[in-house]
Every structure is written in structure tokens, then in C-alpha cells.
Batch of 3 targets.
Target 1
Amino acid sequence: MFAYILRRLIATIPVMLVVAAVVFMMVYASGNPAALLAGDQATPEDIARIEHALGYDRPKIQQFVEWLWRVMQGDLGTSVFTNLPVTTMIAQRIEPTVSLMLVTLVLSVGVAVPMGVVAAWKAGTWIDRAIMVIAVLGFSVPVFVVGYILAWVFALQLDWFPVQGYTPLSEGFIPFISNLILPAIALGGVYIALIARITRATMLEVLQQDYVRTARAKGVGQREILFVHALKNAAIPIVTVIGIGIALLIGGAVVTESVFAIPGLGRLTVDAILRRDFPVIQGVVLMFSFVYVIINLLIDLSYSLFDPRIRY
Amino acid sequence: MDRRGFLKATAAAGALGGLGSGRLASPALAQGAAARTLRFVPQANLANFDPVWGTQYVVRNAGALVWDTLYGVDDKLEPQRQMVEGEEVSQDGLTWTFRLRPGLKFHDGEPVLAKDVVASLNRWSARDSMGQMIRAIQNEVAAVDDRTFVWKLKSPYPKMKFALGKTNSPFGIVMPERIAKTDPFSQITEYVGSGPMRFKRDEWVPGAKAVFEKFAGYVPRDEPGNWLAGGKRMLVDRVEWVIMPDTATASAALQNGEVDWWENPISDIIPTLKRNRNIAVDIADPLGNIGVFRMNHLHPPFNDVRARRAILMATSQEDYMAAIVGDDAALWKPLPSFFTPNTPLYTEAGGEIMKGPRRLDEAKRLLQESGYKGEPIVMLVAQDQPITKAQGDVAADMLKKIGVNVDYVATDWGTVGQRRASKALPSQGGWHIFFTWFGGADCINPAPNNGVRAGGDTAWWGWPNSPECEALRNEWFAAPDLAAEKAVMARYNKALMDFAIYNPTGFFLAYQAWRKNVSGVVKGPLPFFWGVSKS
């Protein structure tokens, strides 16, 4: 197991290098931010001075190598706009995004898996159809629409939750969760739909298996059959989809954080892209890539928990 | 239903909800502390905090809280003494001697000295267009003693006080010498101010929040506060800027009492906010804004004045303004001028080309006479800025009507900002047309008005070259009094119109909104926080 983890971690290095090179090329192909930084009164000479001050007048390959060298030392550079280290900016923003994603994850898995199991159990009935309609809606309605509706109903009409913002967990669980519950529901819509559908499909297949029929013949209770015998054997595709779905969450967080004014990494990324704040774009994309690679590793490792035949 | 319609509908529903429940703000802090904290939604993210290096309006607005200036303009657009106690000008107008007020302090507790001011002026004058003019004619600027400094010039500069007190970026802020010695093209890294509020760097989350705390050591002037002039008395202890990129969210947060003051609600939201009994709505800036349709003077067809005049002749400002502010006629007015209406130097001389029924056939003929033969016209339209998108959409329609083959490049403002700096051929990464807007405060006279500079390579994007226009601008700078200034302005505006330096698409106003437990909000070119209180 340890050797496998080590091999996988080493394998991330070329992946990250490729990501770094691609991100660098894509970002720098779009020009540089000197003209934006210079403002409306700038002359071409002013822009050239800013380009020089930021080092954008050096050969691209030199810029790439220097940036890569700094990254390898843990230095993601400094934002050209805020003058703050990129690591500081990521650190400022990571808690709200991680909190939002974790709450969404817990909520989505907690809702979607039982939904999928029940839909499979009651396949073909109105319950199954109702659950699948909810799933289709989750896929179809954009996050910002769900977000606005939730804010209108639960914040403006009922005054149960705030409209916007983020409160750190350190200031108490109730304010923390109050700020996150609506964004998590909005963000979780697609995720719930995805997990519920894959759970239903996988469970339908598992429930046809001989050992389920044997369990029924032995008089095992329905709940135990569904959640102990069948679900455990259906878990691998579900866990895989949960992992893949984290990419959806990262994308959806950008919109959700804007709609609910959550100061997270999604908004940081969008702001950086719109401003051409290259060091921030590169830093955030690298970090997301690394996180995604690690999540995939964790998912692979989790397979052995559900299926003892899988060994690393 | 599109996103804009959905946004209006949800905002309206929110207003009804607010009315129905009659709900008051639900403060997150204890009541007393909440009343001493003003939560403000600014027009944009405070992405950097160096008002000399970063020329965005939002940086200027935050800078005005933290740094003081030697002079400040009032609501009559007159520069008044601010950090300066008095000044003397030599008989020949070549030597200005300034004396600072006693008791001025920086936020680190150190006194403000003349050497700090000199260093600050040196940094500012390297970046500001008026500062650069002074720099070009200066012999020296030097400290005489701790409270006195002198600026010696080679030729008179009658607009000195205006230059040091104007509102447009970059403005002449005073910072400690060690910080002011930073290269003007690099950002400062310390934010030690001289104004009424201290910047809380430790609470700054760019893109999300900026916090300012009252500076106890600030000594306001005795006069009442008036824009950048007079006593800047802070009536709240803390100002929190909450960055909200989404207008529906900002609208809901204001209605829900989660924020107190919103700098720039879009016109779609205004009827909703006006219906909420807890919210006050008023014009934000009486100096308004001027829409700009900028043409590239370097490349055909707009290197020919006939093509540029054809555009002015075809422009229906009503169409542009309707696209920007909607059907509220009180929010816009026609602008056959390059200067801000209702200001002392406003003139419409030479603006006949923009008045009366639009002459599309004549414009089409004029365009053909300029040699235009249907080549693609590259038009950069930033889609992420509602004002530029509105102008671009109207312009595309208008241009097609006069036979222009429009290459509509739908992009973001960041790309426009980069590409407009390119002098390359439009087919090779350059451009023919882009859109923006100027704050009216930047167009009250020729000094801060970049759009009318016509010095070729040194001019603003589009690089117009007209020695005649530049001569008239210089004539205005030398004008000794208002009457003389007005006389020059009439000739200057006419010359600019004849040259069709750019196409003004109209004058428009915008709103601000605040909760009614906030008082003291005034109209102005930037949000003035002094004199604002919260109950």
C-alpha cells in the first residue's frame, strides 16, 4: 500500500509539470496585464516601465523556468495587483471554499445516496419517477437560478438565513452553517442528481444478483439488504462518481461564491482571470490540479475498503 | 427569461418580501458596535491599494479615506486648502511657497513634514498628466523647513491648486517620505496614511473585504466637510467595504440590512429599491458620466477625419443612452460636447454635427468619400461591462446602417485593456473602435480629460494628432481668469468636434442607495464617508 501511494505521488510530478507548462502558455498567450495596470492615463513608455518592473519583458522561457523554480521551492509568486503573496491570497480564501465543498459533499451524499437506493428499490413506481424528476431538475436548473430562489425564499421572505457572506467555523457552528446552508443546497443540486442517478443504476444491477436473492430467501430484512449487502457492493461506481463530481463542485463554486458573496477561491480565480493576474491564475490552477490528483488517489485507495479483492 | 430579467424579478420579489414583513436589519454585531460600523458595497473590488500606482476609481475612493491631500475640490469644483494652511505665489507666478497646517500626523504617529510632501509630490507628478506638466516646467520642489516647501517653476502654472486638489486619479496624496520614494511604477508595500481613516491591512481580503478604522490622531479642518475640502469628521469608527460582484446579491443584502450603503446599483434594480421603505435612493454623482466611442486615428478609415465625422453625424445619443440607463429620461441628456454639463466651462460650441435628426445617408456618403470600401472594422466590445456592451450593441446596428462591415469582437474588459494599447493593424491584433466611459469629474475642464489629448504618440489610445487642438489646450492652461477660460473652451470644443477626436455617446447619471438609518450621504464624484452616521 505504502509503495503504491509513493508511486502515485511520484507520478503526480510529471502531471503537475505538464499542467504548469500548459497553464503558463495559455496565460501568457493572452498578453500581459501591464496595460491594465497602467491605467487610462498611461503612455506606451509607462506600460513598458511597468512591464519591465514586473519582468514581463524578459524571454518567455526564462520567465517560465524562473517561475517553475520558485514553485518548486513553494513560492507561487506575488499578485501583480494586490502585491500580496499568492500563497497568502490562497490561504485567505481556502477556508470558505473548502467549507462550502465539504458541507455540499456531506449534504449531497447524505441526500443523494438514500434517494438512489430508494429509487432502485421502488423502481418503476411513482416514487422512483418522482426521485428521477428531482434529479433531472438538479441537472437542468442553473446554480445561479437555484441560488437566487433560495435567497429570496429563505433569506428575504423567511429570514432564516443571511443573504450573503461567510462566517468562519471559529466564530461558532450556527453562524458558520447559517451562511453555508443555502449555497450548499444551490451548489449541491447537480451533484445530488449525479450521485442519485448513478446510485439507482448501480443498485438496480446489484439487486438482480444471486446473493441478494439468497439474502432475501434467508429472511434478511429489506433495510439490511439495501444498505448493507447491496449498497456496499454498489459503492465503487458511486465513490468514483463522487470523486469525479468534485470537479463539478470546483466549477460550481465559482458561480455559487459570486451569488452568495462568499470570499472563496472560485471568486479569486475569476477575479484573477478578468484582471490577467498571472501569478494568481497559475497558483490557483496548480493548486486545484494538485487537489484533484490527490482526490483521485484517495478514491482509488478507498476501493479496497469496499472490495477486499482490490489490493495495492 | 434571460439572466437580466431573472435578476429584476428576484430583486422585485425581494422588495415585496421586505415590505410584507416590514423586517428591519438583523445586525450581526451588538447594536452599539453595529451603529459605529458602516458596511459599504463599493463599485468594484479593491484589488490594489496604491492610489498613485493604481488609477482605478475604486482605489482613488479608498485612498481618499486613508490619505489626505494638500488641497481638495468642493462641490463648486473650487480647490480649497486641506493640509495646506496657506500659500504664497510670487509676483511672476514662478514660485509657489506652501505652509502646512500644524498638528498633521501620519497613521504611525509621526508628524507630516514638508520633506514627506515633497517626496509625495515627486511620486505623484511622475504619473499624473497635470503633475507631468508641472514637472516639465519645474526648476525644483524642495522643503524649506518642517512645515514649508517651495515649488519653483520656469513658467507660470495658474492651475496649480486645482492640480493638487482634483478628484480624478491619480490624485496628490501625502505619504511618508520613505514610502513615497517607491518607484512610481511599482506598488507601495506600506499603507501609512495621513487621512481620517486607517487601512486595516490585516483584515484586507482582496476581492472580498477591505476595512478602515477611524484614526484618532487626525485633525480635521474647522470648516464643514464639502467633498474633498473642509473638515473630514468621521462619525463612524469603522467602515467595512464588502465586495459583491453580483448585483442581485447586493440588492438583497441591502434590503435585508446586511449592508448599509451601495455605491452603484444598476438601473434595473432601482424601481425595486425605491419601493422599499427602508431604503433611500438618489443620484450618486451629479457630474455623471460620458459615454465614449473611441476610434483609432492611426488606421483607415478613421485616419481620415471624414470617416470620423460620419460617425458623429450618424450617432443617435438617445439610442445609446436608452441602452445604458433604460427608459428613465431623467438619467441622461444629449451631449454635443466633450465636457461635463452644468459645470462652469461647459460649452456646446461646434456641436451642431451631433444635434437634430440623424443624417445616415450623408454619413454613408462621407464615409465612402474617406475611401472606405467595406473592409472589416474591428470593434472591441467588453461584454462584462454593461455600459460598454450596451454601447457596442447600439454601435453595431448604427454602423451597419451606414454600410460598415462590422467585425464585432465580443470579449472581456481585460482583453480590451490590452488590445487597445496595440498600434498594430486591426487585422493583425489591433483595433478600429472600442468603448468606455469617463467620469464627469474627469471632464470638467481639459486638464484631467485624457480623451481630448491630441499629441499623437503621447495621446490616449487611438493616438489622435492635432497640433491645433493641443495648442488650444495649452491656451486654456494659460488663461488667467474664468472669462478667458470660457472663451478658449468654445474654440477648443469646436476644434475637437471638427477633428472628431472621439464620438461622445451621451451624458448619463447613476444612482446610489442606502438604508434610511444612515444619514449624511452626499452626491459627489466619489463616496465621501466623512459626515456619514448610522443610527
Target 2
Amino acid sequence: MGVKLIVEKVTKRFGGVVALNRVSINVPSSLVVGLIGPNGSGKTTLFNVVTGYYTPDEGRVLIEGSGRVVDITGWNPNRISRLGVARTFQIPRLIPSLTVLENMLLFYDYGSCASITCSLRRKWVDVEEAAVARAMSILREFGLESIAHKRPAELSAGHLKLVETLRGLMSDAKLFMLDEPFAGVESWMARKLTDTIRKINREKGSTFVVIEHRITELLEGVDYVYVLHNGSLLAEGKPDEAVSDERVIKAYLGK
Amino acid sequence: MIDVLGFLITLTTYIGIYLVLSLTLTLEVSSGITNFGKVAFYGLGAYTGALIGTYLPLAITGSRASPFDVNGIQLLYTISKSNPVLDLSVFLLSLAAGFAVSALFGLLLTYPIHRVGSALVGFTLLSTGEVLRLFYLNTEPLGESKGFMGIPNPFAWLPQARGAEALYLIIVWCFVGLTYFIVSRIMNSPLGRILKGMRDDELVALYAGWPTPLIKSKVLALTSGLTGVAGVLWAYYFTSINPNMFTPSLTFNIWAMVILGGIDSIVGGVLGTVLLASVDYAARFVIPFIGTTLVTPDYLRWIIVGLVMLVVLLKKPEGLAPRRGGVSKL
């Protein structure tokens, strides 16, 4: 099951710059939602606020799932992640010294088996086996078995983005926040990414918020679009409605 | 006639104590903790041990002598000679206290800083080491610049001095074994992978759900505790300590050992330590015989150590034995 993301009148300032100005969005559960807007419009800042990297100056961030509403405003990223929120970065961030498989394992919740005492007593073997099995089955499901033992430096941009998205499945993410998943990715790989997003969304019911510049690739995949401009919400609606909105065209063309 | 056996026992004890420092530093480095304050925890352990080892026996036997004057030092020697139970218990208590004090100090000092930013940890620890040294230097109950001189040998009651030395060597090496076990178990576990992730990209580890500041502080508490025990072992081995033993150069000596062997690699760290500690100790032993006039003997020792580092790193930039393969054994 997915979760619902509610951002309520969030404001984030950096000195005199207002990066987000009373932004409210409401992402229904199990939907794939696009977040578009010109450079500097505040898309990544919004991601950083939702995932706990920044604390908003005003407003609240709420997650609603299985009949429960949790106010996550001001939580640390690790707590938000454990609640089922996964994110990716504009430039993919995998741990360079670990293989793809190990990068996946990093996102598995080892619970008390990640403690010092458990490590000393070597009580983690069973959990590790389960984690490896899980990671391999995810990689297999998405046809990435062959890269399991490669290191990030050996992978293409598309594969990096794919692994970064899939590692969210290791932690049972219910909300995926993808920052420009198609940037620097060839078009066949972009299609594979869209399929992956759709597949996870369909089978697990996970909610997706996707930032993207390459609108054509994005629009095939999304149900709803929010448009940010200069830190404020400019428009929202079905994809074709949103991009044909005059204000949106103006914002993108800079007129 | 040179006492070869005595030289070997001293050398291996010396290497053993350095191995505890370098093994724990290897774990710290592979967790992304830039510990430039190794000496702080080492010194803290040594001073805790010395404090207990001198004041406690005097207090228990009801003497009012100061551990810093001749009478006190002589009395401590007599007690250690005649009372094995007290002598050993004081030693064991010192080991436990050295661990506890250093570990707690590491935890409390670094948890707030890990939360602010990991880059600041190195600076804080470096300056803390110096602040502590100045504290020892200016605190009367700690002996000021003279330091402690009557720390009792835990095996002083044995009839043979050589036997006491050998027994002490065994204890040091048992502790090296324990440290090796702890460090390698942690580095080769899922936790080791998390630590590695934290070192390479702390934000990713945080987004993977790990409370990185807390994990770092816990690891540092453990390694600092072990470092503290190494300090206690040093104090009881040398039976006298003073603030000059705990300068920042000691920290960077350990770093040199770890870098020389190949950062991140346990075997490498061990090799680097054995090599540098041997060169360092041999130089300390041999140089006085040469009677250099151009350079002071002590500086010559540093030049030799520097030269060894330069040659090894030019030939093998990754260190003597770089780490291979992944973390998981599965």
C-alpha cells in the first residue's frame, strides 16, 4: 500500500531568498505525480524538506497511511526513511566502494542485528541471508542480476538511476521521491525506468513524486502534475491540462 | 654484551601496544571518523591507570605519603613486591577504569559534534588531546611536568624480573588478540558495511535509515575504550608517565602506520604498525651508538621513519596490503 503525502503551506528561506513560498501539495495514495518547473523553482528544495534534509521555516509535512496521520515536520532523514519514504538524487548517489548488491543491502532494515553486540556475536548471518535473497530477487525481477556484483563506477547513468530507485524497495518504501530520474539517460533506458516506476506503482501500490525536466518522458507516466515557479505553486492538474496552461508556458519560456 | 632477549621482549610489548592503537584507528577510519585525537584517549587511559595505581595502594595501606616523593615511590615499590593480591587487583581495576573513562569521554565529547558535522570531529579531537596534555602539565595531583613515577609493576612480586616481563608481554598480546577480534568482527559484518557507507557518503547512509551520528559515537566510544586500555598497559609497562609522552606526534605516528599498511585494511594496518614500530624502536636503540653530531639522534629517528613511508608509498601507493573484496562473506 502507498501513503498519502500532504505538504501544508511550507515556506523555506535561505537568508533573503525564499526558496519555497507557502507551497501546499496533496499527493493521493498510490498515484504517480510529476513535479515540474524551471531551474531554481524550488523542486529539489521541496524534496529536501519532505525527506528531512531541511526543516521548513513554516508549514507542516504529513504522511498518511493505513488510517494514521504522522506529522514528520522536523524529523531526521533516517526516521523519515524508516517510515517508508525513499528518495533519489539529481546526480545518483551510490556508495562507490560497495557493489550494487551491497548498496541494496545498505537499505535493508537489519534492526538490532546492526548493533555492535550482534556483530561481535555474529548473530546476523540469518538476517543477512534473508537480505541478500531479497536484494537478489528484486534485481532479478527488474533484469539487473548481471550487475549485482559491479561497482557504481562501472555502471551507466541509467543503471545508477535504476539501482537508486530499486534500493527503496529494500526498505519497503511506500513513497518514492525521484529527483530527475531521466536526466542523462538514453531514451530506451528512460522507457525502462518509466516501466519500472509503473510496475512498482501497480504491484505495490507505492506513491511516486517525480521531478523532471524532460516533460515528454515524464508525461507518459504520470497521473497528475504540479508546477512550481519561483518557489510558489503555479498550476496543477492532469498532465495535458497543466502543460497547456498559459502561465506554465510563460514560466518555461521566460516571457 | 647486548641483552637480545630483553630487547625482543621490549620490542614486542611496544609493538603490541601500538597494534591496539592502529587496529582501533583502522576501524575508526573505515567508519569515517577522522580521529586526530588518538593520543587524547591513550593519555586519558594512561593517567587513569596511573592515578589508580599510585593513590589507591597508598590509601589502602593507610600511608599518607605522596606518590610523587621518594618515600611514596619506595613504599609503592614495597607494596607491589609484598602484596600480590593488591598489586594485581589495582592493575585489573585500572584496566576497567581506563576503558570506562576513555569510552565515556569519547561518547560524550563526540555525539554533539557528529550531529553538527563530521569534518569538525577531527579538529575537536586534535585540540582535545593538546588541552588534556596541558591539563596534565599544570595539575599538581597529576604530577605536573614530572608525571607519575611510581606506578607499580603488576608482577613485581614475582621473584624473577624476566618472568614478570614475559607475563606482561602475554597480557599485552592477549589484549591485542581481543582488539583484533572486535575490529575484524565489526568490519566484516552488516554493521561494517553501514560504517563503510557512512564513510563514503554519510547522507546516503542517513537516507538508508541509519542514525549516523549515534552509530559513529558508539563506535568511537568502543575504540576509545580500547585505546584507553592501551594507555593503561603503557603506564604499567613503563611504570612512569609524563605529559611529554602524549604529544600530537603520537597520533600521527599511528596514522602513518595505518596509511602505510593500506587504509581500510586490517592486515595492512598490522603490517604497517609492525614495520614502523620496529624501525622506530630499532632506531631509538641503535642511534645512540652511532653518536651522530650533525643531527640530533632523536631527529634522525624521525627522518628514518619518514623515509620508510616515502619509499613504501612511492612503490605501493595503496599501502602494503590494501583491502580486497567486499564486506559480506556470503
Target 3
Amino acid sequence: MLRYALRRLAISVLVLFGAATVVFFAMRAVSGDPATAVLGPDADQAAVEALRREYGLDAPLPIQYVQFLRRAVTLDFGESFRLHDAATNLVFTHLSATAALALTAFVIALVLGFALGTLAATRPHGVVDRVVSVLSMLTQSLPTFWVGIMLILVFSRFLHLLPSSGAASPAAMIMPAVTLALPLLSVVLRLVRSGLLDVLHEDYVVTARAKGLSETRVVGWHAMRNMLIPVVTVAGLEFGSLLGGAVIVETVFAWPGVGRLMTDAIAARDYSVVQACVITVAVIFIVINLIVDLLYVRLDPRVRESV
Amino acid sequence: MRPPTTRIGALALAGVLGLTACSFGTDDRAGSGGDGATTLRVANPTPVVSLNPFAANSADQPTLTVVQEVFETLVVRDDGRIAPKLAESWTNPDPLTWQFVLRSDVTFADGTPMTSADAKASLQALIDGKGPLAGLWATVDEIRTPDERTLTIHTKSQLGTVLSNLTLLWIAPAAKVADSAFFDAPYGTGPFKVSSFTAGQAVSLVRNEKYRGEQPTLAGISYRYIPEVSGRVTALANNEIDVTWGLPPDQLTGLRGNGDLTVTSFPTYANYYIWFNSSRKPFTDARVRQAMWHAVDFAKISKSLFDQAGAPATGPLPAAIFGSASQNPYAYDPAKARQLLTEAGYPNGFSTTMMWSSGCCTNGNSFADAMISDWAKVGIVVKPQELERATWLDKLLKLDWDSTMTTGSTVTGDADFTLARLYLSTAKRNGYANPELDRILLAARAELDQDKRAALYAQAGKIVWDDAVGIFPLDLNGNVVLRKGVEGFTPTPNDLPDFAGVSLR
């Protein structure tokens, strides 16, 4: 088990190094100079050169790269060209907003996904099942930005129930979190439904029922445990895509999170902030993958034995 | 029998839905003043990334919009004329020297009196900050403060734009101008001071209790950035904000019919222009550039795309700017365009490209499409290139383009800012070089007599227009949308909405 964990950790470090390298060179491969983007077309050339020197952009690329890696190890990503603050600070202040949004969306998706999936599976091809299938198809295929704007129209513009944007009150969280949750919700829902349907015909379920166990215990304990593995895998991996979806949702709802910080930073060629954001998101991805793998070991005795 | 699991599912479902349906109404406008005053809730269309008026963002509209409520300038432009503000009067003891007498009753929000040392430090900070406005002061060689109320600016060569330039020199405390932490929550001599600022997101202002003039009726102003147009419109219709501006024309049509809102449109210092790279064939030939202009039916396009968003341009600078003048209009005349092309050696037209930065311009993509289809009718095939701003900027400054569409504003309200910045041959911005134009622009900058200066800019404008350095189709209107109950707002052509005189009913 320890060896397994250590091996996973070593791979994680390699992945992180890869992500850092890709973001460093990708940002510099795109045309557009950060100093010019900050100072605009009217700055004189001397001022642009001075700013490039100040941010170390005048050094040869390999030297900048080594410098970047060395400082990244100590969580120092340099200063934001645009917002005049340490990139690490900016990411951390924005991360809590994104984390709150993503976690709420995750909880909504899991709770609703399990609830609706179980409802659908216990009465296959019933009315509930049909409605749920159509809804899940819709929520999966509708683009996030469109859903967000529609929610704003209905709940803010017409019903005046919820604030349309910002993060000033707890209520402001509802629409962005629901918007973000919908694609994941439909995935969880379908996995739970098909997983339960498969399992409910297994012999051991028949045995459990024959023992006289209550239906709640049969479905909620015996059956549920066995269909959890694919759900945990997918839910874990999809948590990462929630962070990706946050980029769009945060723009639509003016939510002050990492996604919006990153899109603004990319447009402004604010290298340090883009690098800090990407590496932070990569770390989150890696940690979640680790957790998912370790959870497997807990959930599936076969995996437990093999490691 | 009804399976009990259905009940588990139903319960969980009800729980989440119940939570979602709850609405927490909050009111974030309660004012701090004990007189029942309230805070104006503003949504700006572009993010405020800095409140430092001396550095990289010194010419940015979002920065200036907030800065103007906090700081004041020595002089202001009032209805096109320069009027005193922190300076009472000024004289030219000799053509190279400007002497200002400052008011004696001005204090900063922390109670310290404002003196000539503060004015000197602020000007020095703007020059040392090397931002986009530093170039306006390139000929300054000495700033002196003979006494607390006198400021003397000495220039190496005559500088006729000193007063215009001073309308963007904000006076901050001398001890603070070099302290970057000060600009996280700056204060000046203006009616408001900054209470909190999160770069890129929000700014809150509260009254400056030490302000020498009448206290504003507002307790404060809170600005927040809402990136999506639909988000801003909804927030306004939903009474989450009181005012926003810079909305695209198609949104305004809907809002004009809303009884809760007032839409104000007004002329600004901003215009649309399409530049040709005069250093690149075939645009090296003025006849080709003129043909491009004659080939497009701008009257028709502006009617369908820019209903109340602009007015047909009469010169390379909007009419509200000091030094602008009416020029001879270019008629829509495809036959003449073809004839000019033939004379220039392109009887069958040619292929070229036009770039712009995405989101640069009101209805930009539709406008580009409309022009391109008119150009095609005279045989000119124009390939559109919509680019990301940073990429566009890179190509623009390297002169790596055929033609480009953009909008621009003359922030000082003075022709020198735009004409000398963009059309002097040393500026190298559009490949156009004309010694005669250079001579006129430099003479205008050195002219201290403001009427003579205006006449020189009229000549310069005629050259830019007749030589078709670019096409100048449209002067842009600004728009501000207010909720009913916001009173006393007066738009200004610099398109920096000023809320100091506003009250909320």
C-alpha cells in the first residue's frame, strides 16, 4: 500500500512538472507582448523595455524557464503585470470563491443524481424514469453559458427571486452552482440508474430479499455498495471538469473566482497569473485523482488485495 | 407496494429543491451617513485594474472614471473651454514658462493642506511613471515651486497643450505619489475617497468629509464589474444596480421601453476609424485609399447598424474636440471608386485584409461584414481578421497589417492628443509620412495662442481626411442607463460618467 502511494506520488510530481512546462511555453508561443498589453499602444518604447526588464522578460527563454521552475517550488509565481499583486495571493483569494462554487455544485449533482437515479431505477420505464431520462439528456447537451443566461432570465429578470450576478449574498451562489452542477448531475444520474438496474438482478440481491431484508436495506446498502465504484471514479474525475466549467459560469455570473481570473489573465498576457492558476488547478486535479484511487482501494476488495 | 427507496429519493430531492427555491434578499445599499443618504450602485462595463493615475493605466477609461471622484486637477475642460479648478489663475511670463497660482483653501482628505509641492510631485510622478500620458510632457525640463501657492512649469520648447494636458494631471499628496500601497485606497482633494478596492472586481467610495465644497448627497459610490452585457442589463432591470453605461445599441432599444429606466445618449470624444497601412501596397497610393472610402455606402450602414449609437463623422476628430473642423464629405460613388482604382493601376481591384481586435468596437463584426460586401462590389476582396486584443496590438505596432478597424477616444479633448500621437511620421502608427502634416502638427503644439492652434488643427485634419489616411465613418455616442430615481446626472463628452452631483430619490 505504501509503495503504491509512493509510486502514485512520484507520477504526480512528473505530471505537475509537465503541466508547468506546457503552460510556460504555451503562453510564450502565443503572439502578444505582456508589457505592450499592459502599457497599451501609446507607451514609449523605453517604458515598454523597462517594464520587460522589471518582470525579467528580457532574459533568454531557457533562463526564464529555470527561474520560473525554481521559484514555483517555493510557490512564488511572480507579480501580476495587470493587477500589481503577487500571483500566488491573487490565486488564493480567488480560489475560495471557486472552491465554494464547485463544492456546492458537486454536492447538488451528487445528491440530486443519486436521488433521481434511484427513483428512476426502482421503477424502470415508469413516468419518473422517462421524465428523468429526457431531463438528463437535456442538461448534458445544453451549453453551460446558455443555461446560465436562461436561468438569469427566468429567476432574476422575470421572477425577481435571485440576484443575477456577483457574490454579495448566499443567494447569489444558487444559480451559478446549479448551472455548473447540471452536466455532472446527468452523468451521475445515469450511472446510478444503470448501475442499480444491473445490480438489482444479481443473485445476491435476490438472496438478500429472500432473507427478508427491507427494500430500503437491499437497495440502499447491498445494491448501492456495488454500483458505487464507477460512480466514484466518474464523479471524482468530473470534479476536475467542474473547475473547467467554472471558467464559463464565472464569466456569465460575474463570480469572482479563479476561472475568471484566468480568462482575464490570458487575454492580458499576464504570464505569472496564468501560470499560477494552471498549476493550482493541476494540483487540485492530481490530488482528486489520488483520492479517487485510494477510495477505490477502500471500496473494492479486489483492488485492495492487488496493491 | 410502493418501494421505500422511492421515498428516500423523493425526500432528498425535496430537500435540495427546497434549498434552491429559498431566496435570501439582501440590501447592500444602506448608506453610512446618518442623514439617510444612500450609496449609488454602479456596474462598470470594463474592469478597474488600478487606481494609480500616474502609471500604466493613467489613460484608461475605467481607472479615470473612479479617479475623477477622488482626485482633482488644476484646470478642467468645461463646455470645451479651460476653466480653473485647483489653480485660480495662470500666466505665461515667457513663451517657455507657465505659472499657476493655486487655491489656498484646499486640503486632502487626511486634513493636510494642498500646496504647490503636491502639484509638482504629481506631475513628476506622471512623467516618471512612463505611462501613456507621459509623452504629453516630454518637453518639460523644470518644475519649480517658488512658494506654497505658485507652481512653475518650464519647457524646452513651446508647449501650447499645457492646459489641455493638465486636465488629466490628478493632484495627490506629495508624500504618497511614489508609494504603491497608497493606491490601494487612495484619497485626494475630491468629494469622495476610496474605502475599499479589489483590482479587477470592485471599488467602494465614501464621502470625503474634509471636502471644501458642498458635500455630495450620496453617502458613497460602489462600482462593480459585470463582464457580460446580459448580466448588466438584468442587474439594472432587477434593481440590483442603479446605473451602467457603454451598452450595445441592440440592448438600448429594449431598455428605452422600460418605464423604470432612463436611457441617455450623448456625443463623445470617441470615433470609429479604419486605417490603411500607407507603407504597404496598394495603400501607398492615396487614390486607392480614397477609392475604398467612395466604395462604401456609410449612410445606409450607419442607419441600420448605429441608429442612435453615433452620428456620421464630419472630420477625423469628433466635433466636440478642441481643434476639430468639418471637412468635405466623401460621397458613396462606386463608379468613382472604380475610376480611382483604374487610375492607380488596379482596374480589376485587388485582394487585401482588414484586422480588428475582438470586442474592440460597437457592432464591429456586422460593420466589417457590411463594408467588406460593398468593397467586393468594386472588385476589392477584403479578408476579415478578427484577432485577440494582445495579438492585434502586436501586429498593429509592428505595422504588420493591410488595414485595421478600431475605435479611439481623444481623452484630453484636445486635437493634439490624437493627431500628433497618431499621424506624425515619427509615430509610425499607420505608415503615413507627410512632412507638411508634420510641420503643421508641430507648429500647432508650439502655438500658445489657442485660436491659432485650433486653426492649425483644422488644416492638419484636412490633410488626414483628404489623403484618406483612414476612413472616418462615425462619431460615437455614449450612453448611460439610469434607474428612475437617480437624479442630477449630466453626461460629459469624455465618456467618464461622473456621479458626484447625483442624488437618489
